[in-house]
Amino acid sequence: MQKTLILLGAGGECVHAILHAKKLGYRVLATDKNPQACGATVADEFLPLCAYTPEESVAGLLAWRERGGDPGGVLCVAVDAPTTVAAVGKALNLSAISVETAQLATDKLAMKDMFKARGIPIPWYAPVRDAQDVREALQKKACPLVIKPVDSRGARGVMRLTPDVDAEWAFAAAQAESRTARVMIEAYLDGPQVSTEGLMVHGVAHIPGFADRNYEFLERFAPHVIENGGDMPSILPMEAQAAIKTLTGEAATALGLTHGPVKGDLVWHEGKPYVIELAARHSGGYFVTHEIPWNTGVDLLGVSIRMAMGEEVDTDALRPRYQKGVCQRYLFPEAGNVIAVEGEEEARQLPGVKYVELRVKPGDAVQPIQSHPGRAGVVMTVGATRREAQSVMREALERVRITTAVGDK
I need a labelling partner for 304 at 20 to 30 A (CA). Which of 81, 202, 339, 389 fits? Predict the structure, then answer.
């Protein structure tokens, strides 16, 4: 029987990973707590298991193996579940990161402690037990601060502590997004922020994914820290890009990650790179499934799938072939009830528009944006250069219109 790749998560973005694995000739078992997840019917097999609950996933997959399932690898894409990947890998004797590394990669405080001990440059940080700790930090630190839950994702509960933000409210909001009710603060370093993504292969970092993160709406959505897509290739000098990629690999090594996916959020501050966070998984937002291949010609996800299945990979396949322009922007209609969605097909017809996804329809309620899951849609464009991709994006965004109204109109 053909060995099976276990993909944790079967939501919208996960579907692309399922299809990609099947295109490469692999049999796919997808899991998701939602039995109606759109990937459930796309995969060869499906089990209703929560990707964020290692014990449940391990028990369900062990039972599946007892029924004749033949696991060959485990991976998560667009799902922040490295602890489940590690637990499943250990239980089923598959190639996967260690449980210890996965725990470090999903606990921001433990991660920063390890980085500090290993000399990895990071922003100043500290745990906070209550609002009084937050107020004291604001009095002592001259730099801007960010508050965040220790163990969450998608910018949930992440806020800049601007002068008009109430410490009591901010602490409660951040704590509410933490599974363990733990909160931390850290310095907000100004400078260009970048996303890196690649693979650690036998202890060596290969980072084909490199994008400038877009925070043009930082003030509009304050105090919440909301990213509005990104741009490729980066405008940072090649020396800076090389330093950031090197630091991504050093940070991964500090966490014990030597073989598997690595995703970095870093900032170039005063001529030096700093690690904000590192993830031992592949990102969402179509970065690994769409943008990196368009930008570089590298099938990073395909290489990662092969590696998860225990195959030796040719690292030359991770070397960028070119640098085309890629632009991604999200849609942020005003809060209210959606009364019209227009221009989607018109935008799709524009040369250079590669992807348009609307996540709302008439009758839906749009809430004030507080985290990344609240974004109402996304547009992605490609051009010969970064500037060309951005130019196409401006045209596309002029066509897509989501009209909202307050009340029942």
Answer: 389
pLDDT of residue 408: 53
Beta strands in 24-157 (DSSP E): 27-31, 45-47, 71-76, 125-128, 145-149
Give the number of other Cβ atoms within 10 Å of residue 12's Cβ. 14
- Tokens describing residue 276: 């904000």
Tokens 């969605």, located at residue? 341
Q: Give the residue-averaged pLDDT of 270-277.
A: 97
Rounded to whole angstroms, what are the CA distances from 307 to 109, 174, 311?
29, 36, 5
Burial of 253 (0-12, 13-18, 19+ CB in 10 A): middle
> Count of residues for the chain?
409
pLDDT (tens digit per residue) in 200-255? 999 999 999 999 999 999 999 999 999 999 999 999 999 999 999 999 999 999 99
Q: How far apart are CA 86 and CA 64, in angstroms?
A: 18
**What value does the CA radius of gyration of the chain take, rounded to a whole number of Å?**
21
* Residue 336 φ/ψ region, left for φ over 0, alpha for ψ in the -120 to 50 degree band, beta for the rest: left
How many other C-beta atoms lie within 10 A of the C-beta of residue 172?
14
Predicted structure pTM score:
0.95
Please work out, in degrees rounded to the nearest 5, the angle formed at the alpha carbon of residue 29 by the alpha carbons of 23 and 35: 120
Q: Tell me if 86 sits within 8 A of 104, measured CB to CB.
A: no
Closest by CA to 80, choosing from 29, 16, 11, is 11
